[in-house]
Design goal:
- Helix content is 50%, strand content 11%.
- The protein is an alpha+beta fold.
- Mean pLDDT is 83; it is low at 446-460.
- The radius of gyration is 28 Å and the shape is globular.
- Among the domains are: 7-94, DNA Primase, Chain A; 112-238, Alpha-Beta Complex (DNA primase DNAg catalytic core, N-terminal domain); 382-445; 468-620, DNAb Helicase, Chain A, CATH 1.10.860.
- The strands form three sheets. Strands 10-12-11-13-14-15 form a six-stranded mixed β-sheet, sandwiched between helices. Strands 1-2-3-4-5 form a five-stranded antiparallel β-sheet.
- 34% of the residues are buried.
- The longest helix is centred in the C-terminal third of the chain and has 29 residues, at 557-585.
- The structure holds zinc ion.
- The site of zinc ion has 8 residues, from loops.
Length: 621
């Protein structure tokens, strides 16, 4: 979101939002003496309370899982919100009017946000009541025909905007809202008429469950607005590029499952959730864009080692394929983790559920394929692959697709995949064509447009020393350089694949090489730099050689053993996550043998995880 919240206001929110009250809304807290409160930790499973809140200091800390922080980080973590969203929500609760330091967009006047939220809540309640009115019969039929009963309508708060033109504005004015507020919130038009009339309405909520706008469907032939669907206009609350319908229900499942399913309409979101696909969302009145992608990535807790998957459902027809291609041209980082689920019958999730039941919707999601593969298959299908010239033109057309992938590991994977699809075992030929396509596109892109990708290689070579996700890798690299003698033979089982950052992996390879070569009287650090693949690694190796280790006093071999186990534990956990995601994608009935094999692999990995875990905690074996 544009605009940074004033630092003083953040401090004020932190002070005024009582941590015991905020936490108390999620966790039952008991007095634990010494001015502290205790309860069951919301961040891990436990039976005896080890989660402690100290109101005088404004902190919480869990002795079980180590999670801790202040009132803002608590809400951020427990509700999966961004920092700004959390501060805004807490500020609304405690009545602080936030100021924004960056004037990159018009900001609501102080207090306006809160008023608009109240008006939307009142409007949503009013509309939901109206769904029972005689005038709303067509609306109720619309829902019933699509398989939604009354309970479903209530769960999603579906409502009806009455005919008459000024019914809502009269109602809300009676509740004390001013015309200015109603117009600012997009509920009433400048002309004084209700924004929505004689339509079926879906309240759109933000991830904090506040109603911020509505989506409306045309029901009557005499509707004066031509569009079938109409949404709240841009308001201080409602920014369509950031809004996803269903997010209030899907937010927590998305975080838990690291998966989001993007469908196309309100009824599809309803159908998906009712069918058990509780991670379903839809963009409202606009195409799914980069901001939506960022929002989902954040909710999935995405980072380098663990990537969530975003699954788009599309019709199998040309329009659906075009939509998939459009997604493809978006944020490339996002695309790498994007899947598509195509329903061959062309039914959308709503109709699919209606005609074939809940299981069919879940199976649709289960049939997802990576977006790259889908797009590539599409391209190849236009060529006659039985002929050599057909294969060549297919390669020419597919190569730029592969070249557009920024993630180098993925490029290699898709080069192989493309080779397979073309029935061409000559990876080199494919790779050459991809490289050629890449240089063509970079020449084309060599316009005066500032390209953020230009900075990427520099960052890719040397890791950020403060990257917390790479902390274990960095510490291990430091130990390898500073205390090599404390490792047991074979470097305690470490391999270069335990390092996710190529530079750390290269340092490890250099260490291994330096240890097997006769370095004469040369000191250890110089032997490593001499063995290193690139000269750029020298500065990294030197800094690793002098950076302090995270121990007081001398490093012990016990520490090294525990640390090496910790590093390998991360590798195993990544492998487990990947395998679990593969298992999810595998139908246990259709691919029983494959499924069982993966399952036994998982059992082996889990056993290894347990062993490494206890070793990393200092247990001797
Ligand atoms: Zn905990």
């Amino acid at each position: 979101m544009a605009g940074r919240i004033n630092d003083d206001d953040v401090v004020a929110v932190r002070e005024r939002a009582k941590i015991e009250q905020v936490v108390g809304a999620y966790v039952a807290l008991r007095n634990a003496g010494g001015g502290s409160l205790k309860g069951l930790c919301p961040f891990h499973d436990e039976k005896t309370p080890s989660f402690q809140v100290t109101p005088s200091r404004g902190f919480y800390y869990c002795f079980g899982c180590g999670e801790g922080g202040d009132v803002i980080s608590f809400v951020q973590r427990v509700d999966n919100l961004s920092f700004a969203e959390t501060v805004e929500r807490l500020a609304d609760q405690v009545g602080i009017q936030l100021r924004y330091t960056d004037d990159s967009g018009p900001r609501p006047e102080p207090g306006m946000r809160l008023r608009l939220m109240e008006a939307h809540l009142a409007a949503a309640e009013f509309y939901a009541e109206q769904l029972a009115s005689p005038d709303a019969l067509v609306g109720r039929q619309f829902l019933a025909e699509r398989g939604f009963d009354r309970a479903a309508a209530e769960l999603f708060g579906v409502g009806f905007a009455p005919r008459g033109g000024r019914v809502l504005s009269a109602h809300l004015r009676g509740r004390g809202f001013t015309d200015r507020e109603l117009v600012a919130g997009g509920l009433v038009r400048e002309s004084g008429y209700d924004f929505f009339q004689s339509r079926l309405l879906w309240p759109i909520r933000d991830s904090g469950r506040q109603v911020i706008g509505f989506g409306a469907r045309r029901l009557f032939d005499d509707d004066r607005m031509p569009a079938k669907y109409l949404n709240t206009p841009e308001t201080p609350l409602y920014k369509k590029s950031h809004v996803l319908y269903g997010l209030d229900l899907a937010r927590q499942p998305i975080g838990r499952k690291s998966q989001a399913v993007v469908v196309e309409g309100y009824t599809d979101v309803m159908a998906a959730h009712l069918a058990g696909v509780d991670t379903a969302v839809a963009s409202c009145g606009t195409a799914f864009g980069d901001d939506h992608a960022k929002l989902l990535r954040r909710l999935m807790g995405d980072h380098d080692a663990f990537r969530g998957e975003v699954i788009f459902t599309f019709d199998g027809d040309a329009a659906g394929q075009a939509a998939a291609l459009k997604v493809f041209s978006g944020d490339q980082n996002f695309v790498a983790q994007t899947y598509v689920a195509i329903e061959p019958t062309g039914l959308d999730p709503c109709d699919l559920r209606l005609q074939h039941g809940d299981a069919a919707v879940r199976e649709l999601v289960g049939r997802r394929v990576p977006l790259y593969r889908f797009v590539m298959t599409n391209v190849l299908s236009k060529h006659d692959l039985d002929r050599a010239d057909g294969r060549l033109s297919a390669l020419r057309e597919a190569a730029p697709l592969v070249a557009s992938i920024r993630d180098k590991v993925m490029v290699e994977r898709y080069v192989r995949e493309l080779a397979k699809l073309l029935g061409n075992e000559d990876f080199e030929e494919i790779r050459t064509e991809v490289l050629r396509a890449a240089s063509r596109s970079s020449r084309r892109a060599a316009e005066p447009v500032p390209e953020p990708t230009e900075q990427r290689p520099a960052r890719a070579v040397l890791p950020d020393p403060h990257d917390r996700l790479l902390a274990t890798e960095r510490e291990t690299a430091k130990l390898l350089i500073q205390a090599p003698d404390l490792f047991r033979p074979g470097w305690d089982g470490i391999s270069s694949s335990d390092f996710t950052h190529p530079a750390y992996a290269a340092v490890f390879t250099a260490v291994e090489k330096a240890a097997t070569e006769d370095g004469g009287t040369e000191d250890w650090v110089h032997r490593i730099t001499a063995a290193a693949e690139h000269e750029q690694l020298t500065s990294l190796i030197v800094s690793l050689a002098v950076e302090p280790l995270p121990v007081q006093g001398a490093v012990t071999s016990r520490f090294v053993v525990a640390h090496s186990a910790g590093l390998q534990l991360l590798t195993v956990m990544r492998a487990i996550a990947e395998l679990k995601s593969k298992l999810q994608r595998t139908n246990p009935v259709e691919a029983q043998q494959k499924y069982n094999q993966m399952f036994s692999e998982l059992v082996v990995l889990e056993a290894r995880r347990k062993k490494l875990q206890s070793r990393s905690l200092g247990a001797l074996d």
